[in-house]
Amino acid sequence: KLPEVLTKLRRQFVEGSVENGVEEGLAGKIFDLIVHFAGYGFNKCVIGSTEIVDADTGDIVTVEELYTSRRNINTLSCDSDYKIVKRPVIDCVANGRKQVYKVKTRLGHEITVTDNHPFLTIDGWKELRELGIGHQIASPRSLLDLGHNSWPKHRLVVLAGVLSEGNTCHPSGFYYYSKDNIQVDDFISSVEQFENTHVTVRQRRGLYEVYAGTGQDARFKKGQIPWNKLEKESGQPVNGRSPRSGARLWLEDLGLIYKDATQKFIPPEVFTLDRKSLALFIGRLWAGDGFLISTGTNRVPFYATSSRKMASQVQHLLLRFGIVSRIIDKLFKYRDQVRPGYTIYLQGRESIERFIKSIGHHIMGRGEELTALRAYYESIGDDKLSRDVVPFAIKSIVQKEKARLGATWPQIEQKTGLSMREFVGAIHSRKQGFRRSTIRRMGDYFGSDELIKHATSDIYWDKIVSIEPMGVEQTYDLEIEGTHNFIANNLIVHNSHSTAYAVVSWQTAWLKAHYPVEFMAALLTSIMGNKDKVAQYINEC
After folding, report:
1. 46-141+461-496 adopts what CATH topology?
2. Does the structure show a pLDDT above 80 at 274?
3. Does residue 358 contact residue 274 with C-beta atoms inside 8 Å?
4. Domain boundary assignment for the chain
5. What is the mean pLDDT of the segment spanning 184-204?
6. 3-state secondary structure at position 483
7. What's the pLDDT score for residue 333?
8. Which end of the chain is less congested by CB atoms within 10 angstroms, N or C?
9. If pLDDT is split at 50, 70 and 90, which confidence band does 515 have?
10. Which residue intervals define the domain DOD-type homing endonuclease in the entry (predicted)?
């Protein structure tokens, strides 16, 4: 809430109340109650685990953490030109326990909200209950350059190696596995830069097993307390402590020890790193569990992981380079078993070319594949099969601009070199949308700022694939200065203007009491298109 606005409104309210015979202290208490109860009833809510970005540091913060800490941060928002910008979080309020629904999109984004929470569509803001499977909603296609910290190269290499091809469930050290000797040499030279860290290497059936320990004999001696005995509840070693290398202690500090493949995650500190550090980190990740190109028909790079959390984190970090990706559930073969996992596929030619340029040279041991990938995308034409489109409803703006200019479809087609067949007639569901380059050419032809805005926006129009009821949960809402929306779980959602609702509430009540005829006329004018609301409000009056 803006303090200066509240102060001004409070003064006006108290002065007006005193003029009408209300004691000043009581008037002040009434206004304070109005502000307090602004946090309830009107709000469109998210759950506490919803993640937003601290736009000054790159740190990922949950809404519940923000509410508990009362931190003052800037976060990411979408302005009226559809550009991603920084905006202050004015307030974070708790709204009680409410029925919530999980929304999942084609790109794999997930967010849990109340059914009245608005999402940005091509036709403006629409509440979840107005949307369904197949509707397109806005997600960011690129994020700002957020982090400012940097790590030495050896830390980035070791962390990426451990997350992609490592085993941290050993009591005194950890393992790294690879079939590529270039990657192995890169990892060894990096991990040995940690204090008191020594490496042993074995090769079995073409696989290198790299163990990073202290070089000391950690075997049990007669009468020794078993330091690797696991406590039943915590699962952590007790009754003593084995020797640990500097690299092992660092991984402990990051919380990555005793995490199996499904539990792995990218530590919070990584999200505060600058693009230079992130590019190296992602490149080394891809060297381990990433795919670039095959000799067959598969020419779309992807990263594979058994951890859903890590899949979402990789997807988010790619967005910091303007790389759009899609998470797909997969089944992987593992030791004669089939296990669930996730692949993060790059989406569209633009994202793949950005990946090659920004991250490709950091992918160790994959030079030939990278060269083949680059050559393939340099050899093909426009990305005609891309799903990165402006929703089909944009044609209504094109038709409006055509009418304004007074041009015919054949004239427009001749001038732009574009087929006008899909722009003629009513909107239908057969076509998902138009390529951004097409809308840009139309915008340039018409001199239309609106069309150019959509063609050059920071928005990727994602599609809802499921809406699932999740029961009743504690909910929260943010209030964002100026733009009144924020990016949560990589989707653009609206806030609720709780302060504005409070002011409108007491102003409306005053008008209703003192000018009932004028109030009723204004009310019916504003809702005359909705018969259900007309009946409801007449009954209330």
Report:
1. Endonuclease - Pi-scei; Chain A, domain 1 (2.170.16)
2. yes
3. no
4. 3-40+500-540, 46-141+461-496, 153-268, 389-456
5. 96
6. coil
7. 80
8. C
9. confident
10. 207-323
Instruction: Give the per-residue pLDDT at 5.
Output: 65
Domains 153-268 and 389-456 share a fold: no
Find all residues with CB under 8 Å of 337, minimum gap 6, and list them.
Answer: none
**pLDDT, position 296:** 78
Domain 389-456: which CATH number of 3.30.70, 1.10.260, 1.10.10, 3.90.660: 1.10.260
Burial class (CB in 10 A: 0-12, 13-18, 19+), 284: buried
Sign of the CA dihedral with 209 first, then 212, 215, and 220 last: negative
Q: What is the mean pLDDT of the chain?
A: 88
Inter-residue contact 187 to 176 (CB < 8 Å): yes
What secondary structure letter does DSSP report for 206?
A: T
Q: For the purposes of burial, counting CB atoms within 10 Å of the CB of 246, is it exposed (0-12), middle (13-18) or buried (19 or more)?
A: middle
Q: What's the CA gap between 528 and 2, in Å, rounded?
A: 34
**In 3D, which of 8, 14, 9, 7 has the Cα closest to residue 29?**
14
Read off the amino acid at residue 336.
D
Q: Which has the closest alpha carbon to 43: 484, 411, 533?
A: 484
Has residue 425 got a pLDDT over 80?
no
Strand 46-47, strand 459-480: pairing: antiparallel
Token pair recorded at residue 501: 């609702």
| Integer Cα distance of 496 and 479 in angstroms | 7
Terminal CA-CA length for the chain: 31
Mean per-residue pLDDT, 203-223: 77
Burial class (CB in 10 A: 0-12, 13-18, 19+), 458: buried
CA 304 to chain centre: 19
- Section 33-42 average pLDDT: 57
Q: Is this prediction's pTM over 0.70? A: yes
Topology classification of domain 153-268: Endonuclease I-creI (3.10.28)
